[in-house]
Amino acid sequence: MSALEKNLLEVDNLRVRFPTRTGVIEAVRGVSFSVGRERLGIVGESGSGKSQTGRAIMGLTDPRAEVSADRLQFDGIDLLSLPARERRALRGKRVAM
C-alpha cells in the first residue's frame, strides 16, 4: 500500500464493556473497519453500538467502561495509549462525529 493509500483510521476488534451490579454489558463486540480519506456513516438499529463505537474512537467513553481493541489507530497514532490531553487536541479538528 502506498503512502497515498494509507488508511486514516484503523479499528480492529473494538470492544466496549460496562460492568454493572448484575453483570457486564457488552455495548460493542468485535467491531472492525478501516477508513481512508473518505467520510464514514454507520447505520444500525437503536442500541446496536453506533454511538459507543464513535465515543470509543474519540476517547469520550464513560470512565467506568472497559475499552479494548487489537488496533485502534488514527493517522498512525495509537488511540488506546494516547494521553488524554493529546486526544482532546484531535477532537473537533481532526476527528468528529
pLDDT < 50 runs, ≥5 residues: none
Q: Quick one: how many beta strands?
A: 5
CATH class: Alpha Beta
Q: What is the residue-mean pLDDT, rounded to a whole number? A: 91
Helix content: 10-25%
Would you write up a description of this structure?
With 97 residues, the protein is an alpha+beta fold. It has a single domain, classed as P-loop containing nucleotide triphosphate hydrolases (Rossmann fold, 3-Layer(aba) Sandwich), CATH 3.40.50. The protein has two helices and five strands. Strands 1, 2, 3, 4 and 5 form a five-stranded antiparallel beta sheet that branches. A hairpin with a 2-residue loop joins β4 and β5. The longest helix has 9 residues, at 50-58. 16% of the residues are buried.
Layout of SSEs?
Layout: E1 9-20, E2 23-35, H1 50-58, E3 66-68, E4 71-74, E5 77-78, H2 84-90
Antiparallel strand pairs: 1-2, 1-3, 1-4, 4-5
Q: Short description, anyone?
A:
The protein has 97 residues and is an alpha+beta fold. It contains 2 helices and 5 strands.
List keywords for this structure.
97 residues; 16% helix; 5-stranded antiparallel beta sheet; alpha+beta; Rossmann fold; 5 strands
